[in-house]
Write a structure and sequence with these properties.
Chloramphenicol Acetyltransferase; 424 residues; OB fold (Dihydrolipoamide Acetyltransferase, E2P); flat; 10 helices; single chain
Length: 424
Amino acid sequence: MAEIVRMPKLSDTMTDGVVAKWHKKVGDKVKSGELLADIETDKATMEFESFQNGVLLYIGVETGKTAPVDSILAILGNAGEDVSALIAEEEKNKVESAKVGTPKVDAPSPKVEVRTTTNQQQATQIQHQAINQPAPVKSNSERTRISPLAKKVAEEKGISVNALRGSGDNGRIVKRDIDNFRTMLGGATPFVGEESYSEEVVSQMRKTIARRLAESKFSAPHFYLTMEIEMDEAIKARDAINMISGIKISFNDMVIKAVAMSLRKNPKVNSSWLGDTIRYNNHIHIGVAIAVEDGLLVPVVRFADGKTLTQIGLEVRDYAVKARQKKLQPSDWEGNTFTISNLGMFGIDEFTAIINPPDACILAIGGIKQTPIVKDGEVVPGNVMKVTLSCDHRVVDGATGAAFLQTLKQNLENPVLMLGANSI
């Protein structure tokens, strides 16, 4: 008997899925456990296995198309079985649901490109008309709309405005229209511009990013704390570690370790607002923002305070590869208690980040920059990194956030404090 295979809900925030690839075609036999399709969720492209045996009789979502969760993905059954009744029943249910107020899922708009071009020949013809022909007489209802300043400039320059098309509201002629026409009269080549734009269907990932960040920004009262951290000792420590270690570590790995240890000393920052309660997490899971083509993914380094720098480095690199290949799994991005966003490698000195729910804080990391600093009463060159902590004021107060940053500063400016015998 034919059975409907529905679009699965592959993450807690997924509302729609895109079929990236079909591994079977209509008429193929499918065994339970075999790959049926690759489905793009709001965070990754995931392999979807069949849960039943049968022949693929119908494909409900073509490759590259979007469909809501629980809609018909495919139908499996016996070879030659008629599935038209199942499809008709599904369409009937959709119509009835729409009548009682279920939101209609619109098909995505295709990519559209619109292009408009000013015709140079027409511009030349208008210029010729304005110079060599008397202005047409207009009725009161057709009276030219023109700003007082544009009218004054036109009269001073002897330009007839009746042949001009205004670029202001409701076709009103404004001063720039007179100036542009004066340029044409002066012998310069009339400017021929081109207006164009393109539109693309919003990806599932971008939709989720937009929704979650909007919810965070407008529901959590953000405040920001910025601090400068001298990185000279951290640079020396990293160079020394990379000389003796077979695995190279980055400054980002050092920041993750320093943040994790700072959270252990400042547990109130490692928290979440739950409405009626505040959750103070005893475990430390650091979300690390990674930029991908469609937006931003935040895989999680779990129990980061108990991991060595090389363990953190290997884990983050592995996540970065998976993220760009859309191979991250739900277990990779769930459970963060604090998030780090680092744009220093892109030449950004400092910035503020939007809190990544359910965290109460996110730390924005800028680049390390050489700058004059004062040491022992003398101005000397130094390497400084700016960090900005975004805090949810419902959970974290200013003094609490400041104490966390002070601990972080101590850890990075004196890396020996966080680099014990088992920390590399």
